[in-house]
């Protein structure tokens, strides 16, 4: 009996000792704290996962800009004449693509005395042109690009009924600051000139002639923002015929634009067009000086 009592005492003491160790090792709120910590960790992990899912690189938003220009001149007195110059400039940019569309038109009427001594208000200048180009950026620095260019022009009082060209090649933004940029591109192309028959040729029943030629096209554009209101641009274009004796076309356009109000500017421009091969009674060089109002929208 004494042996059994001793065993009972030992078991009882061991039980209370184990309770004390358990209470010391695992506090009363340990389980609750563990559950809370697990809940907090799970919430944090979920939020972190959601944030990481949202951390995707944002795609560059597309931008579209447009402007229209209009200039009028009407003279009376000893000489009567009227001039209208109009234009449209559309530009679109998205990610690695940049596109532009430019339309220009010029109409001029002048009072002319005919052989009978009568005054007639006749068209003395009628010209319109379209230029469109698309660039695709080919590297991360966004300086080099591939381009495709299309040009078409009709000039009623030149040696050509129409002139058109198609070119593709490589270009680069050679210089850029917050106020200045310089772009240039070069590439092979194809040009088509439709000649205008002279009066003598028309009388003989000779019509227009189509002349196709391969060209090397080069373009350069310099832009300088003089201040927040005034901008200077210089554009040079060369469509040089590869075959000797074919007509080559060169163009220079110098412009100065000044902001009048938020969306309205005044633009002064001087344009020189040169064709290397024209009719004997036509001039190789045409110049145009203009002042127009430009509205951006």
Automatic annotation (TrEMBL):
Any Pfam family hit: DUF481
Keyword annotations of the record: Signal
Region (Disordered): 188-207
Compositional bias of kind Basic and acidic residues: 190-207
Full protein name: DUF481 domain-containing protein
Signal peptide extent: 1-23
The organism of origin for this protein: Litorilituus lipolyticus
């Amino acid at each position: 009996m004494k042996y059994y009592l001793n065993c009972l005492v030992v078991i009882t003491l061991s039980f209370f000792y184990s309770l004390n160790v358990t209470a010391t090792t695992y506090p009363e709120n340990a389980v609750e704290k563990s559950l809370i910590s697990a809940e907090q960790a799970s919430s944090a992990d979920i939020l972190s996962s959601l944030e990481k899912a949202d951390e995707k690189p944002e795609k560059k938003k597309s931008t579209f800009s447009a402007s229209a220009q209009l200039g009028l001149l009407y003279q009376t007195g000893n000489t009567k004449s009227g001039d209208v110059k109009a234009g449209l400039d559309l530009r679109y940019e998205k990610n690695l693509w940049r596109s532009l569309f430019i339309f220009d038109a010029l109409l001029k009427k002048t009072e002319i005395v005919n052989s009978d001594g009568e005054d007639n208000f006749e068209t003395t200048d009628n010209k319109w042109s379209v230029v469109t180009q698309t660039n695709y950026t080919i590297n991360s620095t966004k300086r080099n690009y591939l381009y495709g260019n299309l040009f078409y022009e009709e000039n009623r009082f030149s040696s050509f009924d129409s002139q058109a060209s198609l070119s593709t090649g490589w270009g680069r933004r050679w210089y850029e600051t917050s106020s200045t940029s310089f772009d240039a591109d070069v590439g092979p192309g194809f040009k088509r000139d439709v000649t205008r028959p002279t009066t003598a040729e028309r009388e003989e029943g000779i019509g227009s002639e189509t002349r196709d030629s391969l060209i090397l096209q080069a373009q350069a554009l310099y832009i300088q923002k003089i201040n927040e209101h005034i901008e200077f641009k210089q554009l040079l274009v060369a469509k040089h015929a590869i075959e000797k004796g074919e007509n080559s076309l060169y163009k220079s356009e110098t412009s100065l634009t000044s902001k009048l109000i938020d969306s309205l500017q005044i633009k002064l421009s001087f344009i020189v067009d040169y064709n290397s091969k024209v009719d004997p009674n036509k001039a190789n060089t045409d110049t145009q000086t203009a002042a127009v109002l430009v509205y951006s929208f």
